[in-house]
Design goal:
Elements lengths: L2 E5 L2 E4 L4 E8 L8 E6 L6 E6 L5 E3 L7 E6 L4 E6 L8 E8 L2 E3 L3 E6 L1
Parallel strand pairs: 2-11
Antiparallel strand pairs: 1-3, 3-8, 4-5, 4-9, 5-6, 7-8, 9-10, 9-11
Amino acid sequence: QVQLVESGGGLVQAGGSLRLSCVASGNSFSFAAMAWYRQASGKQRELVAGITQSGSTNYADSIKGRFTISRDNAKNTVYLQMNNLKPEDTAVYYCVSLGPVYWGQGTQVTVSS
């Protein structure tokens, strides 16, 4: 079993930056693809970015060029660097392990205009 704990969310002004971290417990982290999802109030949960075991990445069109996903297998940690944040990025961000699937508890990101 894998437990995921996110941190790094908060309140930031538009144009600002945040870095989310997700620490995973369990021995299978280095073998699992990971992803960040987000859910804004009243909207469906959506994929933000994903990263494979080897470091290949994919991104939602809405955040391309602004967000970067990365991982440090030695630290069992995946990151989401978010730059040039916009009010529409406001959501709860979730870390997800994809093999098998486990979800973190989420961290709130609020971007003020």
